[in-house]
Amino acid sequence: MATAQPMYHAPTFEPTVDEIATLKQLEMGEAIAVPDALKHHLSGRLLEWGYIEKSAAGVFKITDMGRKLIRRQDN
Hints:
The protein is α+β, with helices and mostly antiparallel strands. Helices cover 44% and strands 12% of the residues. Helix 1 (17-27) packs across helix 4 (64-74).
C-alpha cells in the first residue's frame, strides 16, 4: 500500500497568465461554478493557495488575497 506524499508548495506563488485571467474574471463579478471551472481548466493552485474559495453551492469566488495578487500583477 502506497503512502500519501505531502503536497509540495514552492516558497512563492507565481501565477500563470490563465490564473491571472481567472482571478480578473472573478474580480469583475463573474461567478464560476464547478462545471465551468472544469471547462475553463480552473487552476487548483488558486484554491490551494487561498486566492479563491468555493461556496457551499459550488461557486468559486475570489478572496482578499486574490484581489491583492491582481493588484500586484497590474503594477
